[in-house]
Design a protein that fits this description.
The chain has helices spanning 21-34, 84-93, 109-114, 152-158, 190-195, 197-203, 234-258, 263-273, 283-287, 307-319, 363-375, 390-396, 400-410, 419-425; strands at residues 14-16, 38-41, 56-59, 66-70, 75-79, 96-97, 131-138, 143-147, 166-174, 176-177, 180-189, 206-211, 217-226, 277-282, 295-303, 329-334, 349-357, 379-380. By secondary structure, it is of the alpha+beta class. It has a domain at 180-380: 3-Layer(aba) Sandwich (Vanillyl-alcohol Oxidase, Chain A, domain 3). The strands form 4 sheets. It has an 8-stranded antiparallel β-sheet with strand order 14-11-13-12-16-17-15-18. The chain has a 5-stranded antiparallel β-sheet with strand order 4-5-9-7-8. Strand 4 and strand 5 (75-79) form a beta hairpin. The chain binds flavin-adenine dinucleotide (FAD). Flavin-adenine dinucleotide binds at residues 4, 39-46, 50-51, 60, 80, 102-104, 107-108, 110-112, 114-115, 117-118, 162-163, 167-168, 291, 381, 383.
C-alpha cells in the first residue's frame, strides 16, 4: 500500500472490503478477540501515516452510494466509503449539492471528514460542518448513530474524529439545491490582493489565491453562484487544466529536482506564465481541479486576524532561499465552527498550505515554517504533514482531554491504534 504522494508505504497483514455494517461489526469483534489492530483507509490522500499498519486494514470501497433519502429535509445518507466524485454525481441527479468542497474530489466522504477537509469561503465551514448525522461501529463492536438531535455531544466529536472512535459506516449530509458556479482565475499583484483581502473574502462566495515564491505575483481564484450558461469546459479547459497546469508544471518540477539552483527561476517563470480564465459549470465539477503532479503538503489554519503577520514572516523565511522550493503557496479562508477537533474551532480561519514536489526533502522547510505558523496560533490540517505533539494539541484544542476521554470510552482497548495514532492521541 502507499499513500497518494508515495512517501508512505506499508504492508498490512490483510486488506478487507466489508459490504455492510454487519460485516464491519464481525471484523471488529474478531480483531478484538484475537488482539489484532485495525486501521482504515479511504482514498489514501492523507500525507501522514494514519492508515499505516502491519495488522488489518479496512477499506469501504465496497460500501458506496446512497443508503436513504430524506427529500423534505434535503438530507441524504451515504455509505461512508463513497468517493466525493461519485457523491457529487449522485447528488446532482437528485437536484442537490454540497454547499462547499475542497480542491479535488478523489477522497472518500469518511476520510475527508475524519481529517477536517475544507474548501475556501468565509461563509462555510469545513466538510464536517455539512454532516448532520453518522453511524459508526466503535472498538467494542457496537453500532452507534449520532446526529444533530441524537447523542449530540458524541456527534460533535464523531464528525471530525481522526478515525480514532471507530469505523464510520454511514454519513448523513445536509444539502442545498444544486447550483452553477462561476470560477474566475486571474494573475494579480500580491500587495493589491493583501490590501483588498477583507473585501474579497467578504464579498465573494469563494476566494483563494496562490503566491509564487520570490515574486510579487499571485493567481487568484474567485467563485460565485451563476445563472449560466455553462462555459469554459471541454477541450479548452482540458488543455489549460491538464496540459498547462499539470504536464508543463510536472516537467518544471522534475527539472527543479534535478537542478536545485533552478528553483527560484522556475517559480518566477511559473508566475510569468500564469494566465486568466473563466469557467461556469455545475458546482461539484467546478470545485474539483485535476492534480497529476504529486507532492507532499503541510497546511496550517490560523486565526484570521493573525494571518497577515504569519504570512509576512513566512515570506521572510522563504526569501532567505534556504530551501529548494518553487511550488506556489495556497491561501484559503474558512468559517469558524463548534466542532471540538476542527482546526477552525471557535475562530474564522485562514489556511496556508505549503507543497514540496514528491521525492524532494520537505522536512527542513516544513519544520521551520511550522514553528512560525504555530507561533501565530496555527493548528495543523490533520491529514497533512505536521509534528504530532500531544501537549501542543492540549493547549490548541480546549476540548482535547474530552476527546481523549470519549476515545477511551468508544475504543477502550485501542483496537484502532497505530504508531501515528499513538503519537497523536496515545494508545496501548
Ligand atoms: C491532491 C490532494 C488534494 C487535496 N486537497 C485538499 C483540499 O482541498 N482541502 C483539504 O482540506 N484537504 C485536501 N487534501 C487532504 C485530504 O482531503 C485529506 O487528507 C483526506 O483525509 C483524504 O481523504 P481519504 O478518503 O483519502 O482518506 P485517507 O487519507 O485514506 O484517511 C484519512 C483518515 O480517515 C480515516 N478513515 C478513512 N475512512 C474511514 C472510515 N470509514 N471510518 C473511520 N475512519 C476512516 C483513516 O484511517 C485516516 O485516519 C488533499 C489531498 C491531496 C492528496
Amino acid at each position: 500500500m502507499k499513500n497518494w504522494s508515495g512517501a508512505i508505504q506499508w504492508n498490512p497483514a490483510a486488506l478487507l472490503f466489508p459490504k455492510s455494517t454487519g460485516e464491519v461489526v464481525k471484523i471488529i469483534r474478531a480483531a478484538r478477540k484475537s488482539g489484532s489492530r485495525i486501521r482504515l483507509i479511504g482514498s489514501g490522500h492523507s500525507f501522514v501515516p494514519w492508515s499505516e499498519t502491519r495488522d488489518l486494514l479496512i477499506s469501504l470501497n465496497a460500501m458506496q452510494g446512497i443508503v436513504s433519502v430524506d427529500a423534505e429535509e434535503n438530507y441524504i445518507t451515504f455509505w461512508a466509503g463513497t468517493k466525493l466524485k461519485l457523491l457529487g454525481k449522485i447528488l446532482h441527479q437528485q437536484g442537490l449539492a454540497m454547499e462547499n468542497l475542497g480542491d479535488i474530489d478523489r477522497q472518500s466522504i469518511a476520510g475527508a471528514i475524519c481529517t477536517g477537509t475544507h474548501g475556501t469561503g468565509l461563509s462555510f465551514g469545513n466538510l464536517s460542518t455539512q454532516v448532520s448525522g453518522l453511524e459508526f461501529v466503535n472498538g467494542k463492536g457496537e453500532v452507534i448513530w449520532c446526529s444533530e438531535n441524537e447523542n449530540r455531544d458524541l456527534f460533535q466529536f464523531a464528525r471530525l474524529s481522526l478515525g480514532a472512535l471507530g469505523v464510520i459506516t454511514k454519513v448523513q449530509l445536509r444539502l442545498v439545491p444544486s447550483f452553477l458556479l462561476q470560477m474566475e482565475r486571474k494573475k494579480e499583484g500580491l500587495e493589491k490582493v493583501l490590501a483588498e483581502l477583507e473585501d474579497r473574502v467578504n464579498t465573494n462566495r469563494h476566494f483563494e489565491f496562490y503566491w509564487f515564491p520570490y515574486t510579487q505575483t499571485v493567481q487568484t481564484k474567485t467563485a460565485n453562484v451563476s445563472d449560466g450558461p455553462k462555459r469554459g469546459g471541454g477541450v479548452g479547459a482540458y488543455l489549460n487544466d491538464v496540459i498547462l497546469e499539470n504536464a508543463t508544471f510536472g516537467l518544471l518540477c522534475q527539472l527543479a529536482k534535478l537542478l536545485p539552483s533552478l528553483n527560484k527561476g522556475i517559480s518566477r517563470l511559473s508566475a510569468k506564465a500564469v494566465s486568466g480564465n473563466r469557467k461556469i459549470g455545475d458546482s461539484h465539477k467546478v470545485f474539483a481541479t485535476p492534480r497529476y503532479v504529486r507532492f507532499n503538503e503541510m497546511e496550517y489554519s490560523l486565526p484570521l486576524e493573525n494571518y497577515k503577520d504569519a504570512f509576512y514572516y513566512l515570506r521572510k523565511l522563504i526569501n532567505t532561499e534556504k530551501f529548494d522550493i518553487h511550488f506556489p503557496i495556497e491561501h484559503r479562508f474558512v468559517a469558524g465552527d463548534a466542532i471540538p477537533l476542527s482546526p477552525a474551532n471557535g475562530r474564522n480561519s485562514a489556511y496556508i498550505a505549503l507543497h514540496v514536489y514528491r521525492g524532494k526533502a520537505c522536512e527542513p522547510y516544513f519544520t521551520e515554517a511550522e514553528s512560525i505558523l504555530r507561533e501565530f496560533g496555527g493548528r495543523p490540517h490533520w491529514g497533512k504533514w505536521h509534528h504530532p505533539d500531544p501537549e501542543f494539541f492540549k493547549s490548541a484544542y480546549p476540548q482535547w482531554l474530552n476527546f481523549l476521554r470519549i476515545r477511551n470510552e468508544m475504543d477502550p482497548e485501542h483496537v484502532f491504534v497505530n504508531k501515528w495514532m499513538g503519537r497523536v492521541v496515545g494508545g496501548k
